[in-house]
Amino acid sequence: MNADLERLIELEKVDREAARLTEEVATLPKRVAAIEAKLAEHKAAVEKAKAQIKSNEAGRRQLETDIKGFQEKIAKYRSQSSSVKTNDEYRALMHEVEFAEKQISGCEDKILELMISLENEEKALKRAEAELKTEAADVEKEKAEAHVRTAEDEKLLAGLKEKRAGLRSGVEDSALAHYDRVIRQRKSAISEAREQKCMACFVMLRPQTWQELRTNEHIVTCSSCGRILYFDPASEVQPPESGKETPKKKARARTADAEVETEPETTPAP
Ligand SMILES: [Zn+2]
Asked: How far does the centroid of ligand 1 lie from the alpha carbon of residue 223, in Å?
């Protein structure tokens, strides 16, 4: 195979792998950010559960203060009741006492309700905290993995960069320029040709181009997509009956060898 063609095929593999690694390195921070956003959600859930418990406690304290206020009022009404002059005044005071007692009872009901929901709120907090703990451990693990992967990718990329430079320095300038132009435009610059077709754009090649290409001895480009073409004998479809192609080729090779070997046979027999 043509040495430049061989290097260009290898160069494209290197370029492709480098592109894949570069993309992976670029996506890893995004993955970490997504994991961290999920962690933030769990943190927010814990904070929300804590805030709910706090407001529950504040609510109960307020109700207890209210009860105290009503109890003081009741005590005041009762002490006033001993010095009232009329029955109406007395009844009015007792009515106030009754009202305050009802208020106290209402407050006590509400306190009980809050105590019951406190149990659920505490359970929810415990659950949220457990989830946060698990998530935090996962995040640390995934972050560490992402860092390791990034470091590995960067090391591989450095190796590929070196290999790439070596390959490029060995390729003839105009072929390399063509390669660069095509890969910039099409993301790939090399294509296999099979059954007289460019396997990238599937355009049929002229018979003469096809014949030239099959030797792999020249840089042949696709007239349609511009990719540099190569021929792989291994992927050629063999007709089931007539396996003529291979024996003929072998025969040709043998003839060439024979030509070289015939030379010493010139000595005539004595
Ligand atoms: Zn093509």
From this structure: 7
CA of residue 162 to ligand 1 center, whole Å:
29
Q: What number of other Cβ atoms are within 10 A of residue 126's Cβ?
A: 12
Q: What is the mean pLDDT of residues 217-236?
A: 94
pLDDT digits (tens, 9 = 90+) for 142-186: 889 999 999 999 999 999 999 999 999 999 999 999 999 999 999
Q: What six digits make up the tokens of 269?
A: 């027999």
Q: Which helix (DSSP H) or strand (DSSP E) does residue 260 occupy?
A: helix 245-262
Does position 193 have pLDDT exceeding 50, yes or no?
yes
Average pLDDT, the chain: 89
**Separation of first and last alpha carbons in the chain:** 46
Query: How remote is the CA of residue 227 from the centroid of ligand 1, in Å?
Result: 6
Strand partners, 220: 229
Distance (Å, whole) CA 113 – CA 180: 75
Number of continuous H segments (helices) and E segments (strands) in the chain: 5, 4
Question: CA 29 to CA 234: how far, in whole Å?
Answer: 42
Distance CA 104, CA 41 (A): 41
